[in-house]
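Input chain follows. Return structure tokens only.
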Amino acid sequence: MNLLLSITYKLRTMLFASLLFCSVANSQVTTGKLEEQFNRYGESVLQEKLYMHVDRNFYLAGDIMWCKLYVVDASLHQPLDVSKVAYVEVLNEHNTPVIQAKMSLDKGKGNGSLSLPINITSGNYKLRAYTNWMKNAGPDYFFEKTITIVNAQKSRELTKPSNPTTATPEIRFFPEGGNLVTGINSKVACKVSAADGTGIAFNGTIVDENNNAVVNFRSLKFGMGSFSFTPGNGHKYKAVIEVGNAKFTQNLPEIFNRGYVMQLTAATNTSLTVTVQTNLEDTGRVFLLAHTRQSLRMALQANFVKGKAVFTVDPNKLDGGISQLAIINSKGKPVCERLYFTYPSQNLSIKISGRQPVYSTRSKIDLAVQALTEKGKEKDPDMSVAVYRLDELQTIDESNIQTFLWLSSDLKGRIESPGYYFGNNTAEILPVMDNLMLTQGWRRFKWDDVVQDKIPALSFAPEHNGHIITGRVVSTVTGKPIDNVETYLSVPGLNTNFRVYISDSSGQVKFDFAKMKGSTEIIVQTNPTAADTLSRVEINNPFSEQYTATHLSPFFLSYASEKSLLDQSIGVQVQGVYSGNKIKHFIQNNDTSSILEKPDDFYLMDDFTRFTTIEEVLREYVGLMDVQKTKKGFSIYLINDFFVPSPAMEHTDFFQAEPLILVDGVPIFNVDRLMGYDPLKMRKVEVYNKRYFLGRSFFSGILNWTSYKGDLANFELDPHALVIDYEGMQAEREFYSPSYDSTSQATDHTPDFRTLLYWSHEIKADPNGEHHVRFYTSDKKGNYVAVIQGLTPAGYCGSALVPFEVK
């Protein structure tokens, strides 16, 4: 059973189980019931995370961007071999894609490169990556980061104005647990940010309707702060926020007369206290559920005493990363929720040795790399490396695989300077981290869905074999979907590469093209001789058309950076002139297999006297068939190879239906059009004298023609056929890194202006099991950094960087 069928079966089984459970279970809420509902819900969907290690964060038009893809299970962070395709996009400020690519995945990893257009507009861009399966969770769950691309030919227009205007900041308040309730003390977080999500430092005051100050507060870092506040009965409150010399007024969130309030206190390193208060007449039980990335860690219950219930939580029972704590009342309704961060203990430590502080130009660098966990040396780490020069424009990226998997991927929205939260100043970081947990919460699901046993809707299938091209068959008259229509999708070429799919009840069709690579042309059609003449096929966009709400900040080039920009621009141009062919080299790894098996017979046209019509070729050379011509036109019938005549029979049995006829993998339904084609353009014909099954379709044999170039050789297609330029899986590009082992190479006068000295999506172990990164410096002097990121099969992740100088 394939994965999609398995998931479908699991969903149906769990739906039945949930209905059965709900029908027989006691209506009273218990921790056991909540645990069962949560686990049942969590098991219904396998979730993926995708992290993308990119060589740099600043590029020039014409540059090549290199990347490594790590796909893991969202709960355990272990490599996940489910999806075989990653979708990678570069989006501008309008969320319009300027670059799109499909990259192959295998065993939870992949790699690729993007060639940046030379005419691209300068600015900041969103780089995002995801799988088809991840589209079920929405764009907030995709990998996304900001990169900068500058077109050096238009650098002047990027000069930063001397008096930039300041827009009104966004001011938001986040009561802990969810709501403010009259008469109950609450902790309230405040976030003040610019349009691009960057935090703005502020001072704030809460005032009542008479402008009396109730509480003062300020931001700690990244525009986030918090304060404690007890709303009084009958009062109205607003906040006065001071940003520099400007003041802004913002109303507080709605204050409810009745409700629940949740407070978390970390009194010690070994204990968390969660206090739930209510002014409702609720003397029953209340429940606390805590999970880390959908792995339930605890389910506790307590009783209200004078409107207060207290839970003691052992933080050691929470896994590393972000945990979600939810309060469920006695009726099974979620009433409060908040996030809590636990620093992970299962870290991967990457040690780099062999570095010298200073190197000369064109000299060899050999770095020894060790990946260590608390268990010792890791034998099989998956690591990638980038080595590049630093300057005013090219800086070290604060995000890495550790900050992404443990933090950013489980929060919604932009996380400013994620590396800060993994620093060493614990006393300063912890309150800032808590503000982050209060102000930017990513919700994988709604608790109401959990307690009501709602199975999540799954619109996108996992591509566990390779790329799936999807579409639908619709009526050309009404535009409505049509079911049960046999649809063909072909990739013309020397290898017979086509698929057949019969549209389902909603008109949907799916074509599995696991190994289609590079730019190509696809042809989609239905059989015009059947009852499909009033239908057409629409091919879906495989890339997501949903986007995050994150806004890009405009990029301005300071006058001080112009020298660095000019230097980088010259380097790119010089490398293009002297090493262009080497930089653009692709590894040839194309699929050479045909979808068809070995034919029963085949004929190479050049082996015979060439005739002027296809009819003559079929009648004179090709056996195992019968060619008939009537007033209605030509018909071809193949001999049924499985029919065994008796000695008394004087004839061989033919199929009663005509065969599937292919030209370079494209089905041909008009036999007269084939007969009028020039046979001199054909290289060979293959004959399949047996009933052939492809998916749910079957054919009375196949007659497969191949032209010399596999390009249809101007064969006239049916006018209803849909011809589309299509990008298959990306071909792998080879990173160019010159060697200066010999004296002649080191003294060669060919300029080497590389600023990206080395990139590799993997660091392979040598015969001794040791990992080394070896490369050569270029002619460009300056400060450099080597960045290594890695992941182990057990889900341990880490990164390391080593600076050095070239003089």
